[in-house]
Amino acid sequence: MFGCLVAGRLVQTDAVQVASDKFVFNLPDYEHVNHVVVFMLGTVPFPAGMGGAVYFSFPDPVSGGPVWQLLGFITNDKPSAIFKISGLRTGEGGAHPFGMMASSPSPSVAQVGVSVEVLEQLSQQVPVSSAAVSTVDSFLQFTQKMLDSLYNYASSFAVTQAQMTPNPSETFIPSSCILKWYENFQRRMAQNPNFWKN
């Protein structure tokens, strides 16, 4: 019913069913994992009005017990999701439906759990904020990086007026002009990330 994907590893489709509505994937060497993708295989849909809450559990370094954190959810309409797990903090677990039915086989093994729940209940749950993956438009990210690169590249040729040698075939643009434009661009992006679409 579910699959789990980590970069550089084989896809896992062998979730352990720990209850009639709960499934768990073991994630060895979780310390070296930044993101995890949880998805439906397409073989069995959720029952009508149901979805899957996705949790991440790692062994607590102090107690050794599992610390579960809600990452988000998947549904028939949104059958996959990517979560950032590298920023999760130890000891910040919350309420979870797994109890002690799923325990990690080793201190270096984390678990990804899927709990089948009512959609209305899923929409009211609040996932841990550090698990969210950036939703910034990829074109916007590219534009910001391109402008950073352009400014850094142009600045590498900066010379003072005393260092300039007259060259009638070249036009010089004051770097302060580019810097002011760039700062204005960043300010506008912070105020309204979609201003460039207008």
TrEMBL record:
Extract one GO BP annotation from the record: cellular response to heat
Q: Does Nucleus show up as a keyword for this record?
A: yes
Stored Pfam families: Hikeshi-like_C, Hikeshi-like_N
What keywords is this UniProt entry annotated with?
Answer: Cytoplasm, Nucleus, Protein transport, Transport
| A GO cellular component annotation in the UniProt record | nucleus
Q: Give every Hikeshi-like C-terminal domain span.
A: 137-198
* Ranges of residues in domain Hikeshi-like N-terminal: 6-131
Superkingdom, taxonomy of origin: Eukaryota
* Signal peptide bounds: none
- Which compartments is it annotated to reside in? Cytoplasm; Cytoplasm, Cytosol; Nucleus
Give an example GO molecular function. Hsp70 protein binding
- Subunit structure, per the record? Forms an asymmetric homodimer; required for binding and nuclear import of HSP70 proteins. Interacts with ATP-bound HSP70 proteins.
Please give the function described in this protein's UniProt entry. Acts as a specific nuclear import carrier for HSP70 proteins following heat-shock stress: acts by mediating the nucleoporin-dependent translocation of ATP-bound HSP70 proteins into the nucleus. HSP70 proteins import is required to protect cells from heat shock damages. Does not translocate ADP-bound HSP70 proteins into the nucleus.
Its family remark reads: Belongs to the OPI10 family.
Query: What is the protein name given in its UniProt record?
Result: Protein Hikeshi
- The species this protein was found in: Labrus bergylta
